[in-house]
Protein: Peroxisomal membrane protein 11C
Organism: Rhynchospora tenuis
Amino acid sequence: MSTTLDTTRAELALLVLYLNKAEARDKICRAIQYGSKFISNGEPGAAQNVDKTTSLARKVFRLFKFVNDLHALISPPAAGTPLPLIFLGKSKNALISTFLFLDQIVWAHRTGIYKNKERAELIGRISLYCWLGSSTCTSLIELAEIKRLSNSMKKLKCNDEQYEAKLKKSNERLLALVKSSMDLVVAVGLLQLAPKKVTPRVTGALGFASSLISCYQLLPAPAKAKMATWLGNRQKLNDARFSIGATLPLDHKIIRPVALISTQF
């Protein structure tokens, strides 16, 4: 019973760390938003109302978030990065920063602060084009990085630790490529550039899948795996002691290691 309680406490602590991130809450709301768009298929009703209200609520999470990419834009690139990748990276930062800044004006219009409807709609479309551009840049960056990793892995042995590390990075890059490709199509759907092919239902489905990937990427998986391994080892030791007539109580301060986990995912 104590073991189950301690395990639950540890898992809840990881969940608290996860939900304390504004980015994580935003992506959960994004999944709700696009899931509702998929259900509504652009038709009026409860699902469409959920889509619209959740979209408006998400904009609050993103207030002043453009500063993050603005800072990345003026920061020096990592040493050894090829010039084309630097250009794509800076373009991505500029576009996503512009998107987030203009999105604040859209939020101001929807809340009644900014009254000019025509200009707000124009700004909204410009912001979506910026997001489309940033998603394109992200896809190209991920493709290039996967190619670089693949070339470097050819020089390493399969069982080498460095090979395993690069393979893990390559898988992460591949997942990011899938996500950015989905976001690109979602942007096309929101802009209605191909309304017959990218319908509201297609937009909703891809947006929902992309949101789930984002939620997964934000999970503290390494910390969670480490905690599960630690608990498993303690339980095995406890069982061994119990089999010879002595019980080793689990450390009730199990939550302490969780508190040391970085919240920067």
User: Anything to note?
Assistant: Residues 117-153 form the longest helix (37 residues). The chain is about 75% helix and 0% strand.
